[in-house]
Specification:
Helix content: under 10%
Strand order of the largest sheet: 1-30-29-28
Number of helices: 2
Oligomer: single chain
Distance between the termini: 33 Å
Largest sheet: 4 strands, antiparallel
Mean pLDDT: 92
Length: about 350
């Protein structure tokens, strides 16, 4: 349905497929902040870790090696790393939150929600784990005690969340967006209704923490600045992941380059594209794969972009056959022209 011509419809961009992928829908990808280690979670109830490698700006071969795997008691929805890269955290549809010690390959439960855990982040400044759930709560966990140190009641179910530095942004059902400072998490600094008219699918903070991106199920992205004066001048929305006027797809993932601030959107149409918010232009459009892209992430230095080709449930269970479906994680070596805007100091050196 998606591919064209004689190219490999699964991999038209000639990216590298990760070895030993999950056997069911891939729900999250997260890179270690201290090494080129990648974690991924899946509806097959597993959490997996790989070691990956590539040279900066697309030079040399991309390689992957499966390192460790943990089996959970239910489908796993989200993953995150400790700041040292020694532990992986994950949350499942059963509400359990677990910490995985990679050195000992042992897991321990560190939290519990009454609904599925949609997102989590480790906060190194406070040595606490933050979790957001379908049970309409945010919770902070000390990791040494079984009870949360703080719980905040959200207006609705947590659908998306991101934390970068002091900035935390949470998106809930009914298109609500809450903006917090990690320094004062007991109440949001601001709560707004999303500028997008349809359900929020993903939220990602700017690299400089001065704003955030919102992606929706309606093939549209909002660029939101925190400063009110800047917002009136620079806030905007744009359409993406649409094949024509009748084919509109969800924006499943937005990943921000860690140093340059450009970003990648990935969607149900099987495409991922590189963008520059300052010039309001697309830096590069990648070719369409033959299935949805459910999630994506940059590694710690932005030299690799990983994305999952995997059914995202956007068309319901009736369109998904777990016996025949194929799930892949692809590694794309980032080329400088894909992420550096024409006006940046990095642009133009290696085109």
């Amino acid at each position: 349905m998606f591919g064209y011509g004689s190219k490999d419809q699964r991999n038209p961009n000639n990216d590298t497929e990760v070895v030993s992928p999950p056997s069911d829908g891939i729900s999250s990808i997260a890179f270690s902040p201290s090494a080129n280690h990648m974690a991924a979670t899946s509806w097959d109830e597993t959490v997996r870790v790989w070691e990956v490698s590539a040279s900066q700006w697309g030079g040399g071969a991309v390689q992957s090696q499966a390192k460790l795997m943990q089996k959970h008691s239910s489908p796993v929805l989200c993953s995150g790393w400790s700041n040292t890269g020694s532990h992986v955290f994950f949350g499942g549809t059963d509400g359990q939150v677990k910490m995985w010690d990679l050195a000992t390959n042992q897991c321990q439960q560190v939290g519990q929600h009454s609904g599925g855990v949609k997102s989590l982040f480790f906060i190194p400044e406070h040595q606490q784990l933050l979790t957001g759930s379908w049970d309409k709560t945010l919770k902070y966990w000390d990791l040494r005690t079984p009870n949360p140190t703080f719980s905040y009641s959200l207006p609705e179910r947590c659908y998306a969340m991101d934390v970068r530095g002091e900035l935390m942004v949470v998106g809930t059902a009914n298109r609500q967006i809450l903006i917090f400072s990690i320094r004062s998490p007991t109440s949001p600094q601001k709560q707004i209704t999303s500028p997008l008219k349809w359900q929020t699918r993903c939220i990602t903070c700017f690299a400089d923490q001065k704003g955030y991106f919102v992606g929706s199920i309606e093939g549209r992205v909002a660029v939101q600045n925190l400063d009110e004066i800047t917002a009136t001048q620079k806030n905007f929305t744009f359409k993406c992941h649409r094949q024509n006027t009748s084919e509109v797809y969800a924006v499943n993932s937005i990943a921000v380059h860690p140093s340059l601030g450009s970003f990648v959107t990935a969607g149900s149409d099987g495409c991922y594209h590189f963008w520059d918010k300052e010039s309001k232009r697309r830096l590069k459009a990648m070719e369409r794969t033959n299935d949805s892209i459910s999630c994506g992430a940059f590694n710690r230095d932005g030299s690799l972009y990983a994305y999952s080709i995997s059914y995202d449930w956007s068309k319901g269970c009736q369109n998904h056959n777990t016996q025949t479906a194929r799930n892949s994680i692809m590694l794309h070596p980032v080329v400088e022209s894909e992420v550096a805007s024409k006006g940046s100091n990095n642009a133009g050196r290696r085109r």
